[in-house]
Design brief:
Blueprint: E1 13-15, E2 24-25, E3 31-32, E4 39-41, H1 51-54, E5 64-67, H2 81-88, E6 93-101, E7 107-109, H3 130-134, H4 153-160, E8 165-170, H5 176-185, E9 192-195, H6 199-208, E10 213-217, H7 221-230, E11 237-240, H8 248-256, E12 261-264, H9 268-276, H10 279-286, E13 291-294, H11 297-304
Parallel strand pairs: 5-6, 5-13, 6-8, 8-9, 9-10, 10-11, 11-12, 12-13
Antiparallel strand pairs: 1-4, 2-3, 6-7
Helix pairs in contact: 10-11
Amino acid sequence: MRINLICSLLLIIVFNACAPKTSEKNVDGSLVASPTESKGYYIDLEGVGSAEDFYNWSSDRIPMVSAHRGGPYPGFPENAIETFEHVLKYTPSIIELDVAMTKDSVLVLMHDDDLERTTNGTGEVAEVTYEYIQGLFLEDEEGKLTTFKVPTLKEALLWTKRRALLTVDIKSSVPYEKIIEEVRETKSEGHAALITYTFPAAKKLHFMAPELMLSVTIRNQDEIKRLEETRIPWDKVIAFTGLAERPREFNQALHQRRVFTILGVLGNLDQSAEARGDQIYASFIQNGADILATDRPIEAAKAIKTLAPSQSSKSKYFIK
């Protein structure tokens, strides 16, 4: 049942009571919290609207985090559905994930070209079969082997419905056609946005799939002009403003076009927050960032939750 958010809480708690209760263990026997045993903070777009509606900026927007590579933490490796669930135990989040393609053209979640850093396998993703990848386990960022498997893009798209918004980072070896095909096949157009790094790529993707939202790098006034020259409608754009904080006036220029801004705090700005205190995340939001793309989504979300408006038109997207 959907209810409006009537207080300054950023999040609405959702308990997945119908899911089976199981416990996961790492290979060494240590327990990992099972997402099916946990409360979750979810976003629902089904029957309410779409990503286009959600990303239509307004002054009562709810500031959010985007979990870079899904938000890995100790025991929870990058680009794993269990990791996405772990983040959603603490905060609603946009989930940023990476897609590569196997030798037999299966789309899997993987950031690197090779398998060695994130799995117990070897070789290039593009040179092995999906059958081989199915036999592997993911490792966390400390190199600890888990019991978690490499997901396919299709599994992630199906999982995310009524849970989170996705941004899909497409590796250079993956044909756009394959991504669009799976988004359409799973009817994920309403909650999956595609990440682009150049204006020609954004223009090509928009031509191929005009219904999809695009994350486009826009860091200055010249790049605002270049986006407008592509004739991609602003209501199909989320502006990734780079890895350095932008002037308030620049963020306001994007807001005037009703565009959400994503500030990449991963890297130096996340490190600054660790060193100087997490309140720095709140200052980024106060300066006009709407979404913080971060390697520390749980900490960043905690720091910005008090900045949510007491009443928001976006509240309808949070479900109980």
